[in-house]
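ENTRY TYPE: paired fold submission
RECORD: A
CONTENT: sequence, then structure tokens
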Amino acid sequence: MVEQNQKTNNNKKKISIPIIDKRIIKSLVVFGVVILVAIIALIFLFSNIKKQSEAIKQLRIEYKKILKQSEIYSNLQKNATIALDYNEAVKKLIPDKTHLIDFSENLNQLANKHNLELGLVFKNVSDSDEKKTTYQHIDQVTFSINIRGSFSDFINFLKDLKEFPYYIDFYSFNISNVSEELISYNIEGRIFIEK
């Protein structure tokens, strides 16, 4: 019986060892599967993080572009409000064609104010001169002025012409003595008008 007990004990020992091994193996397999799933999940997670980080970088670049454009538009808006303050003054500098008569009348009044005789003639613009106009909505009309008077009166006339409400470009001055007190001034220039 002792032998039988020993055999039974030996059998129990044999049986118990494989059971422990099976439990360890099961635990190791489950642990291995969990680790494998965790590794696969981490790989997917890291690849997803890379994609999202690239997307975030692109969004930051777009954000910076939009921010710069927003600043540009904001500055344009500020400049536009500043320019609106001068809009009327600019419109007066560049009158439309119907105000050429006003230009000649105002110029005559200015000459009379300074005791000068003034003769104003608008010239015909040739085709080559028309092509020189570079602005889309602005045209130019050339003119010739003949002024007679004293030199000091003429200088005062030119000083007041600085404040004249038209944009004038003089490109030719000819001065000649008529007498000791009387000087003749021939001036050619152009005035800019709206088309």
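RECORD: B
CONTENT: sequence, then structure tokens
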Amino acid sequence: MAKRILFVTAHFPPNDAIGTQRMTKLMKYLHRRGWQVFVLTLREDYFPNARGDYRVYLPDSVRVYRTGKLDPFEIWDWLKRRLGRTGRAEAPAPGRSSSKSEHSSKSGSGWWFELKELVTRILQYPDRYNGWIPFIFWKAWRIIRNHRIDYVLVSSPPHSPHLPINWLHRWLRFTYIADFRDPWARSQWVRERDHLYQRLQHRLDDVFEGQTVREADLLIYNTDHLREDFEQFYGTAQLASRAFTLTNGFDPEMKVLLGNGRMREEEAAAGRQFIIRHTGNLYKKRNPEPILQALAEVKARYPEAGRRVRLEFIGPLDEALHYLHGLVESLGLEKQVAFLPSRPYLEILNQLHQADWLLLLQPGTTIQVPAKFFDYLLSGRPIWAVVEPESVGERLVREMGNGFVSYSSRPETLRAFFQQLIAGRLKPSRPRSEALERFSAQHLAEQLEEILLASNGQKSEKRASQ
């Protein structure tokens, strides 16, 4: 009899966030291996500007259930009006850093600021999907009971879906898999604990992450670094028998949908621009400003050669980074730098395929690697990694053997990339085939199946002993 698995995730088409790719790839290849796949996700109208279509990725036999959710921000907007808060802070002026603007907007903050921020954090805790929690509880209950679901996989972030499945797992019989794509309570990007609302959020994160770790039968992490972080915090003995690494990956079948990508060093040598592309969101913690400064310095030293570099950032630009438009102009990089809107997933893949280099930007953390890295592998293009020393991003790029590593905190390593690029000393190459195979979606789905079947549908030792 085919095994039945329910995926509970907000990352499902038409949501075109990068997390959607992990989910649909696992669903697709588990289904091919004979699994009955069920999906609990949000209604399509919550993603009005998204373009993802699950019918492109998945067969019709995958059962998809959609629900609504409450919106805590509508409540907060009403409360802000009642409290006299009429609007958001203005975006930083062009040429000014977002950090300075943010600091100035919070200067003089006292008990009133603390109160407003505390209310905001409560209304959106653990994230802005908390209004989905009651809908998940009741719908998942019915799906699990009616279809005799064997396995329930909850992928986060967002972390809200873990809470109702934690509760359901105490009453219904299924194997619960908590899939962590990013950290929760110990994010290296969120360290501040100066204010009451920050301390409260960290405390609640500790509580609910711990509850999820104890309740889940299987724990899956998308990097070894992330798994080791959890093992170090909770104890290897507690997690060793049920903690596994399952990386993100690429779908090799998408390769046939791409254009004719090719190595283009001959054209570059003849004077064509080197096109370096980055896809996905840019925000305060993923800020390309040091890269722009490095390019400007190289261009000032080598004016003609510097003009042959073009940086394209495809995807949303957070409001806090709107000042980058003015910075680009002040640095004289209008013809070298472009911020472009998001495109549908297949168009993005083709854009990657036609670039000379692909930018992997992950400062501030050593245990995470953006999921776009695996789409970069599919394209076969060389990767410029701007990461932290000894990070998982650095390790992966070096293993693939087709990239250049710079450190976000060391400007000289950023300049070195541009200097070697325009001097013709960086020769594009494709990823090592032996290293590439382990990231194919078929291989990852096979790994996941082995993990699930090894659990034999049993409850955790704690549950079995009760």
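NOTES ON RECORD B: The chain has 21 helices and 13 strands. Residues 86-108, 460-466 have pLDDT under 50 and may be disordered.
STATUS: closed
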